[in-house]
Structure formats: structure tokens, C-alpha cells
Specification:
Layout lengths: L4 E5 L7 H12 L5 E5 L7 H9 L10 E5 L10 E6 L4 E5 L5 H6 L2 E6 L2 H4 L11 H14 L25 E3 L3 E10 L4 E7 L15 E8 L2 E10 L11 E5 L4 E6 L4 H5 L7 E7 L3
Helix pairs in contact: 1-5
């Protein structure tokens, strides 16, 4: 039985790139269902690719093959791998940090180095800038259609996987809850953090009571947002264009503007230097 093949890139959809990848996959495995996760990862943004994979994979059946191509090092000697998660999903990707958040959330069981000499698309030996078409989706389609076994991809990968530097969420006595801003949800501009939603219990806070909480955002240790926001179950509990704090669909705390774009209005981005702090306002 063939498995689903799911594609994620930073290619966008204006150019020929995604269609070329799908053509290769369809030619190899015409009965394999092909899906798009997204092709709108910010160019070269490995952090966003890793987070997006980590928060999507678990909703797909075990055995699904994901091809992730956010590859600033294309054509160099960077390593290409096929990884098996502890949930039974396969990821075909450059080993450049893309696997880091997947490993943290789901766990990586096995990794194999793709033998490019054996598995490069026939006729692609002269091309060095489109491994999404010529290597990753080629291997991914063979894996999804069972024409290639995972262990036949290449030798086992023996090194620790490359880890992105993501500050851990913490509960601090003098601060409250602290974590990193790990992403922006497009097109709405909602702020994603790595602070678990259930940590609100440590502050004795419940969104059902709509309390005000103090929210502070720092970039490179400089405050860029410092306001009291209402903690609510969802967006419509505040008036339009008003900021709020809520629990997102992945179980973490997020910030939003009701029917607005929080990231754009407040000029917020994401990454290891963007820190979110939340503490209870004492009456």
C-alpha cells in the first residue's frame, strides 16, 4: 500500500519549482497521493521549516513521507537524510536544523544519509541548485510508493542532529512565565510561543475569568512591547483590533489582535532573540 507524500518548501508557487517536483513524484509513483503542507516558508528560514513540520506531522497517518526543502546550502557538501520519527513518519530533508524541533516534539528514531550517487534523479548529474526536484522528492516518492526501503537510502547517520538554538520556556519567580517567540501565523499575524498553555495554572490564571495579565516582549533584551492584555479563550472575546492573549491550537500561549495583525502592528518577529514574558497582575 502506497503512503501519502507531503511537500514543504520555501519556493512559493509563482515559479515552476513545485510543479517540477510534483511531476517527478507523479512520474515515479502515479498512484501515490501528493499533498502540499506549504510552499510559503520564509526564504532560507530553517527555524520556520522545523517548527512547521513539528506542529503538523502528528496529524498525518504513520508512514506518511514528508519532503522538506528549505536548503540554503544546496549544492554544497551539506548532508541529505531520510529520518524516521518515533511516530512512524519519514522526513526527507537536508540535515541543517530542520529536524531539531521535530526531534524535540516527536522524537527521531533512525536517520540515514541519502547516497546521492545512487539516488540522484537520472539525468540530473549536471544540476546542482535544485535538489528538491533531483534528490529529495525523487527519494521521497520512491519511499512513499514502497519502491525503496528506508534502510536502502544509505548508511546510518551517526552524528548528533543539528540543533537550532531555541530558549527553553521557564517559570521564573520574579518574572512569571518566560519563553521564546517561535513563529508568526500567517496571514493573521498571530504570535506563537513555546510557553505551554497549561502553565497558566502556576499563575492561578484561567481564560474563563478573562483576567488581565502583564505581557512583555523583548528583542535582544530591549523591551518592544509592554502592556496588560486580557487572557481569553478565543479572539472574539475582545473588541475588534484589540490585543489579547490566548491558548493556541497546539497547546501554547499566543498573542493576537482580534481581526487584526499583531505582528505587523507591533513590528514583532520571531527567533531565539525574541523573548516573551507573562506574569499575573496582582490587584
Amino acid at each position: 500500500m502506497t503512503q501519502a507524500l507531503v511537500l514543504m518548501t520555501d519556493f512559493g508557487v509563482r515559479e515552476r519549482f513545485v510543479a517540477s517536483m510534483k511531476g517527478v513524484a507523479y512520474s515515479l509513483a502515479p498512484t501515490t497521493p501528493i499533498f502540499d503542507l506549504t510552499h510559503e516558508i520564509a526564504p532560507f528560514n530553517i527555524w520556520e521549516a522545523s517548527r512547521t513540520l513539528a506542529h503538523t506531522i502528528a496529524y498525518w497517518p504513520s508512514g506518511t513521507v514528508f519532503v522538506s526543502v528549505v536548503d540554503p546550502g544546496v549544492g554544497t557538501d551539506r548532508t541529505s537524510v531520510a529520518a524516521l520519527t518515533k511516530t512512524g513518519h519519514i522526513i526527507v530533508t537536508p540535515e541543517n536544523g530542520t529536524l531539531s524541533q521535530v526531534d524535540k516534539k516527536l522524537g527521531i528514531k533512525e536517520i540515514y544519509v541519502i547516497d546521492q550517487g545512487r539516488h540522484l534523479r537520472p539525468g540530473a548529474e549536471q544540476f546542482h541548485t535544485f535538489h528538491g526536484r533531483d534528490l529529495y522528492v525523487y527519494v521521497g516518492a520512491l519511499l512513499a510508493s514502497k519502491q525503496l526501503k528506508l534502510k536502502e537510502v544509505g548508511r546510518p547517520y551517526q552524528k548528533p542532529i543539528i540543533q537550532l538554538q531555541i530558549p527553553e520556556a521557564e517559570i521564573l519567580p520574579d518574572v512569571g512565565l518566560q519563553g521564546a517567540i517561535t513563529g508568526i501565523e500567517h496571514p493573521y499575524g498571530n504570535i506563537i510561543s513555546n510557553i505551554p498553555y497549561d502553565w497558566l495554572d502556576a499563575l492561578e490564571l484561567s481564560p474563563n475569568n478573562h483576567p488581565l495579565v502583564h505581557v512583555k516582549i523583548q528583542h535582544q533584551e530591549i523591551p518592544v512591547f509592554n502592556e496588560a492584555l486580557m487572557l481569553v479563550p478565543s479572539f472574539g472575546f475582545v473588541t475588534e483590533q484589540k490585543p489579547l492573549i490566548y491558548g493556541d491550537s497546539e497547546g501554547c500561549l499566543g498573542l493576537a489582535l482580534n481581526q487584526g495583525d499583531f505582528a505587523k502592528v507591533y513590528n514583532i518577529e520571531f527567533g531565539e532573540k525574541w523573548i516573551l514574558q507573562i506574569h499575573k497582575i496582582i490587584d
